[in-house]
Amino acid sequence: MTHLAVCVRRMPCLLRMCRCRAISLQAAGGVCGLSWRNNRQFNMSTVTTSGSWLNEILEDQSTQKYYIENKTFRSNHIAHGIIAIDRLGGGQDRVKRFIDDYGNQGNLEPPNHPLHSDESTDAEPATDDELHKLLGQRKLYYKIRNRFNMKQQEYGSMEEMLREEFPRLSRGLVCSAIHGLIHTGYGYSAKSLTTVTEGLAYLHHSYKPLMFDEMNPDNDISNFGKGETDILAVLAELKDDEQLRKSMRDGVKKLSQSDWDSGQFQYAVAALMGMGDVLMKYAYKIKVPVISNCEDEASLAVAVSDWLVDQAIAVYALSEQPNNFFLVHGVTSAWSLRQIITVLKPPDAIDTLRTFTCVLLAAYLSQECPALTNKPKITRSAVTTSDWQDIVNKTLSRDCDEHIFKLVQVCRDMWHQENGSDKADLYLHAAQQCVDNDLSFVDINVS
User: What InterPro entries does the annotation carry (predicted)?
Assistant: First the structure.
């Protein structure tokens, strides 16, 4: 355990003042408005999944059948899409239709595909020494996965494995466009041991750590969330930091000329992870209003995680770039982290949430800091169950990109969790942006 984690245990008695509440961006009347909401639920699985048949399908479509990536570096999303469609109420036939469509798009490669000919599903599990050497090396995925299969048998439960193994990997969760975290969180939401194990192995395989000076007192974790600045104002400061943005672009150019075959987003966030002290400086400016209103560390972790989901949704929904592909990942990864946050020991949970805050800042920077001006046109009081059913029906009727299913599912799940809430307009606005617009991409100018 690092001294950072120990510091969490020393957080002031303010953390035990009162019943925990959460706070989030409110779009109506402007993007800076903030509003309180009771944090009544610790279990975010508000939608009942379909039990045995779902897990059977996840087992059948697992990395035993298809490699964790395709086309060199693109992540295998099939498990996330299956789970999202199930949570939307799509049913077994709709899930099978998605599987067929996803495969027909060329998104799946067998384990013995020529692009990863050194891989074998029957690989000997990595030894401790091999596991250490393979961290972040992006090779021999099946040796890593098979070792995690052994670990889950030793731990005896998903929860215990996550509690012990996830914190060792959480500093590097930005890897592979945050898909290791997404795979793990979606797997846990469906209680799929296979998917959770695959996700942890993917985190290990592609690990890209946040690098910062842990001895710098300014980075002490006890200060996390206690800044004085609204998150939108911090994002505006990031937008104005030309030196940081130039450093990011220089990093993208350098990494694109290396032997690491990936995309601009991953190059950008990897470069920014190497500037962790700068990201940490901005992260520590953010005022997370829940910090001083939680009765204990466990409720603090839940409240901050809920808050981060809301902020990710707000940035995606309000972006002048409708349906930005990588801002979608910010939303789905925030929700994925929320699924597992209560499993973690509180100090590990807070450390992970701090890392994830830096990841969200990096994701925003990587998209060239879009203006957040796209406000909802519907009032929150006007949002109804019928509105959501229309969006869900429209989504499920289409053979669309799997990211669409996930974004709509997260927003609908959050609306259910909050029982309508004062952010109903924001959740619906985000889902509508996703359904009504093609996915958009930003080209980072590195010339």
Answer: Questin_oxidase-like
